[in-house]
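Journal club side-thread
Mid-discussion, someone asked how the predicted structure for our own chain would compare to the paper's figures. Pasting it here so we can look after the session.
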Amino acid sequence: MYRDDAPSRWTKPESLLLLAFLAVLAWAPFPYGSNRLWAELVLGLGVGVVLLAWSGTALTGLTTVTSLTRQLAAPALCAAFALGWAVIQSLDLDGWSTTLGVRLSSLAHPVWSMASAALRKSAGSYISVDPEMTRQAIFVTSVCIATFLLAFELARDRWRASVLLGALVVIGVAYALMAFANFYLHVDFHDALMPDPKLDTGRLSGPFINPNHLATYMALCGLAALGLFVETLRQAVVWDRGAKIILRTMLQALTGPASGWLVATIIVLSALLLTQSRGGVISFLLGTVALIVALAIGRRLNGTEAPGRRAMAAFLILIVAISTVISADPILGRIQQQGLGDAARTSLAQSTLSAVEAAPLVGHGFGAFQRYYPFFADGSVLGDVDEAHNDVLETLADLGLPAGLAFMAAPALLAGMCLAGCLRRRRDRVYSAVAFAASITVGAHAFVDFSLQVPAVAVTYAALLGAGVAQSWRTGNDLVR
């Protein structure tokens, strides 16, 4: 990886902002993945303060704004359209009908006319079943967008991109070790802060209540660790001087700079597998395949680079195999007992499809699934259901098809930029490759769970994606401090 140990780098405004940004990302998973209202507000405050500080330094000329921001026009329009519609969903249409002189109440969800009839007075008229939940979802999504923008701007410098990616791996290792201590030694790190009872599932969950969410988080950190390991090894080994030189330089690398990333990879992947999350592990494997492809494609290689790239693909496969052998028994046992399918998730998916069919254009309210699900439930899933366990279908039911598809198109376009970056770049392609692989992982897991609705997972993915998009173009394309 790129190295520049000059102390002066750490005193520059961008580096100080990066440290503050990393502190926020390190905090995010601790309070149950920031999946509590107060924790979401704290996370939003942290990201907002860093974004405000960066904006101030950019306006005063202390930091440089990349000219590549214009490349984000298409995904920005998609996100703006989706969030703009979510804002409309949260507005009282009766008031706006009076202001605009246009009857808008016909767009409102029928539940509001029912409520007005029951109360014998106007209860308002909203598209969203629960406008307050919609506003909360808009807030969390805005925090993720701000995280992406910070990572995009700060990671245009390849040294800062390296620090960001490495720091996310270190943070992932710290939370993996915390999960091990909690699981094996029964050390409760949250007791003083949040004495919420945790379910005894016999699975690793760490700071997250749901093991599946820890699995997604560890998958993201694991992909970053894998990318850093193989890139460090590729640069350290001399590939065109014969087998003896290859072996000697490889041993030096494995006992030197690459060893830390190798250890980090094994720790993080062991934590991932011990969550026993079937969807999480399968999604990670798909992401690993995407990482191999992203690192293998690109410009025509010379005789020195080609062997190294092939060797890195082999190393990726080997590392995953070793980690699986170490920790795969629990998840294999769970698959044998429960299988790969889940009747409850199938029922939820069918109910969510019914919700999509009921309001295909306007949706039922961004983030309001918990409120409108009972209208479409078939009764097979008992208790209070707050998520569809399928982010794709839930987004379409929340926002409607036009805005829902636009919402999902934004990260898909950014992931496509990362893949294009792997095709056109020869140096520093690891950032774009990791971001593309992370997109495949969270995208695949979104079909069977709702990890992206956990703020800590979402902002970590946004940071990886921001760094990947930032490094999808040569740093000479704009001025970088």
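Post-session note: The chain has one domain: 22-91+126-343+386-477.
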